[in-house]
Amino acid sequence: MKKGAIIAVSAIMVIALGIGAMGFTAAQSGNLINTTQQVGIWVNGEGKVTVTPDTANLSLGVQVEDATLAAANQKAASAMDALVAALKAQGVAEKDIKTQGFNIYPVYDYDKETGRSTIRAYQVSNTVEVKVRVVANAGKVIDAAVAAAGNAVRVNTIYFSVDNTAAAMDQARELALLDAKAKAEQIARVTGVSLGSVSFVSDSTYGGGRVTPPMAIDSKAGAEGSVTPVLAGESEIVVTVQVIYNIN
Questions:
Q1: To which H or E segment does residue 71 belong?
Q2: Residue 70's Cα: distance from chain center in Å?
Q3: What are the φ and ψ backbone dihedral angles of 220, each rounded to 5 degrees?
Q4: So what's the pLDDT on residue 204?
Q5: Is residue 64 part of a domain?
Q6: How many domains does the chain fold into?
Q7: pTM of this prediction?
Q8: Is residue 109 domain-resident?
Q9: I want to staple 96 with a disulfide (CB 3.0 to 4.6 A). Which of 31, 50, 131, 241 is the partner?
Q10: What is the DSSP string of 5-41?
Q11: By percentage, how much of the chain surpasses pLDDT 70?
Q12: Residue 36: pLDDT band by 50, 70, 90 thresholds?
C-alpha cells in the first residue's frame, strides 16, 4: 500500500494530520477527509482463535531400485498398489488419495581410474498425498501403509489442518477489528480529536495448520500391536487488519 511517509508495521498506530495543522482544521470544520491525502488515524488490529485440527494430511510413497528399469518400475507399481489398497481398507476414500509425484532416476557408479560413470541401477519412486479426515486414525493409516509396502515405503511428512475454517476466521476477524477500533479510540482520546467513520479496511489471514518435520518410520512399526502415535495439538487462525478512521 503506497502511503508516502506512512510506514505500516505490526501494531503501528499513526495519526496523519496532513501538512501542518491544515488537515486538522479541515476535520474540525466538518469536511470529509480524503484518505488519499494520508490523513486520518491508521491502526492495525490482530485477532487470534485457537482451533483443534480435524484433518491429518500425509505424504506417503514407495521407492525401489533394480538393475533394470522395467523391473524397478514393476516393483514400484506393485508396492504402490499394496499401499493404496491398505489405505482404502483403513477407510480412506479414493478422492482423498492424490498422486503427488512420480520419478525415475538412474543410479550411477563412478570409476575413479577411468573417470567414467556407468548406470548401475534404476530408482523409481511414487508418492501420494493422503487426507485422513479423522485425526485419531492417522497412526493406524501410517502403520497399514508401512505393513503393506514393507521396506519400499516412504513416510515423508505430516501436517494438520481444519477442514472448515470459515467460522473461526469470522471470529478472528471480528476480534481484529475490535482490537483496531480500541487502538483508534485511544489515539483519538489522547490526542483530543473525535473519531470519525472508517474510510479503509484490509485484512489478511494465516494459520489453521501445523507442519511436522519429515518422519522416519521403521518398516516394523505397529508389528507388535502398538500404533504409531500421531498428535495434532492445536493450531491458531490469525487475522490481521489495517483500518483507517477519518477524524471529525
A1: helix 69-89
A2: 38
A3: -95, 5
A4: 86
A5: yes
A6: 2
A7: 0.69
A8: yes
A9: 131
A10: T----TT-EEEEE-STTHHHHHHHTTPPP-GGGSEEE
A11: 77
A12: low
CATH number, residue 114: 3.30.70.2970
Asked, for residue 7, whether it belongs to a domain, the answer is no
Is 132 part of a structural domain of the chain? Answer: yes
Whether the Cβ atoms of residue 63 and residue 156 lie closer than 8 Å to each other: no
- Cβ partners under 8 Å of residue 201, min gap 6: 177, 241, 242, 243, 244
Cα angle: 165, vertex 170, 172; to 5 degrees: 95
Q: What angle do CA 129, 133, 134 make, to 5 degrees?
A: 125
Task: Write out the three cell numbers for 129.
Answer: 498425498
Q: How far apart are CA 58 and CA 137, in angstroms?
A: 12
The amino acid at 29: S
E-strand stretches of the chain? 13-17, 39-51, 55-66, 97-111, 116-132, 153-161, 195-207, 209-212, 235-247
In the predicted structure, residue 91 carries a pLDDT above the cut 60: yes
Amino acid sitting at position 197: S
Write the pLDDT tens digit of every residue in 166-223.
999 999 999 999 999 999 999 999 999 999 999 999 998 776 544 444 444 444 455 5
Q: How far is CA 56 from CA 94, 180, 194, 196, in A?
A: 16, 34, 50, 46
Phi and psi (nearest 5°) for 28? -65, -30
Predicted pLDDT of residue 226: 80
3-state secondary structure of 173: helix
Query: Residue for cell digits 489442518?
Result: 161
